[in-house]
Amino acid sequence: MRHIISILMENEAGALSRVVGLFSQRNFNIETLNVAPTDDPTLSRLTVTTVGDDRVIEQITKQLNKLIDVVKLVDLTEGQHIERELMMVKVKAVGAQRAEVKRTTEIFRGQIIDVTPSVYTIQLTGEAGKLDAFIQALGANTLLEVVRTGVSGISRGEKVLSL
Amino acid sequence: MELLSGADMITRFLADEGVEYIYGYPGGAALHIYDAIHRQDKVHHILVRHEQAATHMADGYARATGKPGVVLVTSGPGATNAVTGIATAYMDSIPMVVLCGQVMSHLIGEDAFQETDIIGVTRPIVKHSFSIKHPAEIPEVLKKAFHIATTGRPGPVVVDIPKDMTAPTEKYEYVYPKKVKLRSYTPVGRGHTGQIKKAVELMLKAKRPVLYGGGGLILGQAAELFTELARKLNFPVTTSLMGIGAFPQTDKQSVGWLGMHGSYEANQAMHHSDLVVCIGARFDDRATNNTAKFCPTARIVHVDVDPSSIGKTVRVDVPIVGTATSVIEEMLSLLDESRSAPDAAALTDWWKQIDDWRASRVGRLYEPAQPGEPMKPQQVVEAVWKATKGQAYVVTDVGQHQMYAAQYYKFDKPNRWITSGGLGTMGFGFPAAMGIKLNKPQEEVVLITGEGSFQMMMQELSTCSQFGIPVKIINLNNQSLGMVRQWQDLNYNSRHAQSYMQSLPDFKMLVESYGHVAMKVEKAEDLDAAMEKAFALKDKLVFLDVYVDPREHVYPMQVPQGSMKDMLLSKTERT
Question: Does domain B193-361 fall into CATH 3.40.50.460?
Fold first, then answer.
């Protein structure tokens, strides 16, 4: 099963490599990963999506917790949560394609954020599945480039991941 | 206010921390530190002949005393040579602090002379690591390093120190930090009382229980409490290889250690048990055999200070995260308060079964040598046990001799059995024995090794001459890499690919050339006299080159992918 694990860690050199290294060292899987400092500049928040059965996920969270640089973590998929990913797509858009791509973008509530006579650059935010669906919907149109941030997530309601 | 250079802060901190010996090897990036060592007399430096030996010396010291071992090496090759020793300590959770010189900060990343990203290289084999960014932070970082290395589940910590951090001209205020706080690191303390109650209830109901102790009992200084618990319950006691000594092995309640080469009765008892109470062991593959067939009828209680050890390889019914001492203390008081007692009738039957298993092997553990045949390695270990009255610190390398030592030397106290169990590092033994002898000069320290392992670190004979470290070395010389050869006999139709040691040195001449004493023992009738002579020479390193049967195999041996009880008992018998 897919899990989203969100980690607060020391914003220090080497912390990220310890987390990423742990996954390869112990043969755990990383599907997406993103990391950035938080409002507290001494802390970074790292979100990783991974796949594994209960035993593997338990090991992943336990091993992550053992890292000295990891301050706190939560498996967001254990509770109600919101997940988002940002994607930017560069699509070939000439002639009739231009209107069609624009329409598809509107349906998915994306935005065209850059335009040239032959190319649209589209920004889209949503759950990973929605981004996948958008790429599928673009169908025959030529995809020139796709860039995704990886999943970020937050718990619903009062629950917070903070110190 | 006291102003010190980074280098002086390091030696001063080590002295304030109570470190008496450090083990290391100088080089360019560490020279400011070496100069500081030269200018003080509290911290003594032992110059090894290879950095790997420095880490094993520190490791041996830590295993025997429970205190952290400290290593100092230079950048690049100095640090990479230490890697095997760091990994060895990591796998067996040994507290160690490794100080590595590094090229000057402004050169880092430029492939400078003797530059290695040692933080990167050691990342998967350390508990944590630090890089010094400013000389003023040295005392605090070192305190953190010692704190992390020694608390919770112990382990090695690497501190990378660029040369400019120790420059003699840059001085900063030094205060010894008595305490440090890390917001992201809180070692676990007491276990969950509800869980401990559940465990005790299971213990009181059990009909075929086994107490299973691991290296955590030794590291956590819980052997005495564990023994008390065992006596109160009258359960059979087994240990992992690393747990040897946590319970007196000559006691009737001990069924020996378990696993691949563990005793017949320990493995049988585990397989047939209805309750395994494991404290401080991690159920690794050499202990469990095939986990799918592991202890099919047993409920498992697992106590460990490291939550990630619980449920990692086998399913656990009652997980308890806590220190061994606190959990056992709580178990003991719950047992005292309880109105019921362990099921005496069931235990009587269980003990009868175990005694039958045990009796079936008496006198059949190995076949003694016939007249004219080479000595058996097992009888040599038995002779060492007798000669040292079972009181020695016994250090081993890795291979057949390691298993024979574990099987035939009986340990009644913790911290006396010193072996690289997790990583299985050949070459570990000699330096580890040196580290112990240096710090415990009154104790008998015996290295049981083989000619393969010994040759991996034999350059340290020179260190022993320089610092006067009189360890006793029993070389079980079978002129081959015995364990490799055994597996080749069993799995590769006796095709002995590269397991035969050609061109062995004359060990007697070799050892004597360093100024030590050496004897060659080829006949069984000379063995006891040679031992006696060796142990009588208190102030001398003595090397006994004992020729043993190269055809001998270590048994029992669990059948690959089988259950705990599936064992080869000799070349011809199988359970």
Answer: no
Question: Nearest-CA residue of chain A relative to B316?
Answer: A55
Q: Which two tokens stand for residue B77?
A: 């090759």
pLDDT digits over B176-198, tens only?
A: 999 999 999 999 999 999 999 99
3-state SS of B495-526?
CCCCCECCCCCCHHHHHHHCCCEEEEECCHHH
Task: Spell out the CATH class of B3-173.
Answer: alpha beta
In this prediction the ipTM stands at 0.93
Same fold, B3-173 and B193-361: yes
Q: Which residues have CB under 8 Å from B366's CB, separation 6+?
A: B376, B378, B552, B555, B570
SS3 B421: coil
pLDDT in tens, B499-558: 988 899 999 999 999 999 999 999 999 999 999 999 999 999 999 999 999 999 999 999
CATH fold of A2-79 reads Alpha-Beta Plaits (3.30.70)
Helix count and strand count (H, E) for chain B: 22, 22
Q: Cα(B463)–Cα(B460) distance, rounded to whole angstroms?
A: 5
Whether a cis peptide bond, with omega within 30° of 0, leads into B556 is yes
Q: Cβ A14–B127 below 8 Å, yes or no?
A: no
State whether A63 and B308 contact (CB < 8 Å). Answer: yes
The answer as to CATH 3.40.50.300 being correct for domain A82-152 is no
